[in-house]
Every structure is written in structure tokens, then in C-alpha cells.
């Protein structure tokens, strides 16, 4: 009997910049104490799910989350993938949203709506971002067939994946925002795509 390749895509733990409403993007912001607590709680919630590996964005808020979970679950050190990094927000990266409201009110509103078609001057386009995210996901699944992989990544990355598995346009605005530590469970298809799957599933 063939075992299904499963991925659990999870948003990193909390940072101080999350609380302060600052656009993080590629800025390397560490977890705060609550984020570390969330990471330990995530490991406990996922214990027994049968993961064989953990993959992560190389940004420290993800990598630290992944390292905590991997250690708590007795798994090897996480593998980092640049394709799992957050979207690059260009000139407004590192800017508080309160400041953005004054300097770029239109962009501020679109960011609050999490509009993927936002034009981030000096940053990544919607298509370039979506392409690298899905390429990374496909590669991870291909390198671990019939296994269960935990992936620690970012909110806008999870938006891209959610649209893809729900067959929505890349520019679709979702009616949701993934919380810190929230997961999306996927099953890899023979066609190279993905679908939402049940989870957490216990090891068999």
C-alpha cells in the first residue's frame, strides 16, 4: 500500500515586531518569549504525528521555531530553504504600519487586506514570490516521498499555498489570516500539485 506524502505547513512563533505591527519581510527578527512558548506547545500538539524531518525558512523567527520543535520531537536539525522566506516588502520593509498609514495610506490599506497584488517598490512581485514558494514546496515533497514533513514558514507564504491548493487566482484576497503557530496540512498529488489534507494524523 502506497503511503501518502504529507506536509504540515506552519507559521512561526510570535516576535516583538508582530506585536508592534512592523512589516518584517526578510528582516531577521527573533522570537520573543511567547513565541518560544508557542513553539514548545506546537511540538507537544504534533507529538506522535510521525514527522521524519523539519524544513524551515532560514529567517531566525522560523528557524528558532523549527529548532525548538525538532529538539522536542527528537528529530534531526531543521533544513533551511530560501524558497520558504517571507515576501520581500521592498522599501517599506521594517516600517511600522502606523508610519505606513501616514506615508503610504493606499498601500497600508492593501496590506491590511493582505492583497497579494500589492506593489512593493524594491520588493518582490506577486508572481515571483508565488513561483519561488511553490517551487520550494514541490522540491521538499519530491525529496521526501511517502514521508511526513513539518515546514515552518511565514504568513504571506501560507497565503500563497492556501490559494494554490484551493485553486484560487494568485491575486485572490483571502478572508483569513494565519495566526502564529497555525498549521495547514497538505497531501502531495502524483500530478505534482497539492490538496488540503486531514491533520494532525498519528503515526501508523
Features:
204 residues, Histidine phosphatase family protein, globular, His_PPase_superfam, alpha/beta, 38% helix, 6 strands, 7 helices, 6-stranded mixed β-sheet, Rossmann fold, isomerase, PG/BPGM_mutase_AS
Structure description:
There is one protein chain. With 204 residues, the chain is an alpha/beta fold. The chain has a single domain, classed as Rossmann fold. Helix content is 38%, strand content 13%. β5 and β6 form a beta hairpin. α2 crosses α3. The radius of gyration is 17 Å and the shape is globular. The two termini are 13 Å apart.
By oligomeric state, this entry counts as single chain
Individual helix count: 7
Largest sheet: 6 strands, mixed
Mean pLDDT: 95
The CATH superfamily bears the name: Phosphoglycerate mutase-like
Task: Report helical residue fraction.
Answer: 25-40%
Written as H for each helix and E for each strand, in order along the chain, the element string is EHHEHEHHHEHEE
CATH architecture: 3-Layer(aba) Sandwich
Q: Which term fits the overall shape?
A: globular
Low-confidence stretches: none
Number of domains: 1
Keywords: Glycolysis, Isomerase
InterPro entries: His_Pase_superF_clade-1, His_PPase_superfam, PG/BPGM_mutase_AS, PGM_Phosphatase
GO cellular component, one term: cytoplasm
Protein name: Histidine phosphatase family protein
